[in-house]
Amino acid sequence: MTDHGTELSKLKVIFTAEVKKHHYKENGVWMIIHNNVYDVTSFLEEHPGGEDSLLDVAGKEATQDFEDVGHSDDARELMKKYLIGTLPPEEHKKTGGTTGEKDKFEPPCSNLKWAVFALAGALVFGIVLKKYLSK
Ligand code: HEM
């Protein structure tokens, strides 16, 4: 496996608005799959799933359609050839899946953890204070 993180960080940043402009053959057919931008203009006629399926999602977010088909590992390897850029982080969609960057992991109970710590601290402080005052 290659270091995908480093590969991605070298990619050109392309905004969704720019991708939208490339939705027909004459202007190039671009699409977004797992927050990455692909230019499939030269692949249209070779696509085993047909030109039309690619034209349907031209200039759009195509992750769901791409995953719904259940593309093979070979297809995922092949798509690297057409990778031209990546969306800026603020335009990333949480799509899950097997390519692209993983969404940031946020521990769901970090606030609860701090509340328990604070409570335990207050309790210890209370006990010490009580002992000190009762002397
Ligand atoms: C860069 C993007 C893409 C690449 C490189 C690619 C490549 C391929 C390849 C190699 C296959 C043959 C089967 C396989 O190996 O999985 C295939 C099949 C297919 N693809 Fe794509 N594809 C891409 C994007 C898409 C998108 C966005 C859609 C739908 C909107 C799509 C729809 C299909 C369909 C319907 C099939 C036929 C499946 C079948 O007959 O079993 N593909 N694609």
From TrEMBL:
Organism annotation: Pararge aegeria aegeria
Location of the protein in the cell: Endoplasmic reticulum membrane
InterPro entries for the chain: Cyt_B5-like_heme/steroid-bd, Cyt_B5-like_heme/steroid_sf, Cyt_B5_heme-BS, Cytochrome_b5
GO terms for cellular component: endoplasmic reticulum membrane
Residue stretches making up the Cytochrome b5 heme-binding domain: 11-88
UniProt keyword list: Electron transport, Endoplasmic reticulum, Heme, Iron, Membrane, Metal-binding, Transmembrane, Transmembrane helix, Transport
Membrane topology label: Single-pass membrane protein
Transmembrane segments: 114-133
Pfam families (alphabetical): Cyt-b5
PROSITE patterns the UniProt entry points to: CYTOCHROME_B5_1 (PS00191), CYTOCHROME_B5_2 (PS50255)
Protein name per the record: Jg15970 protein
GO molecular function, one term: heme binding
Domain of life from the UniProt record: Eukaryota
Family to which this protein belongs: Belongs to the cytochrome b5 family.
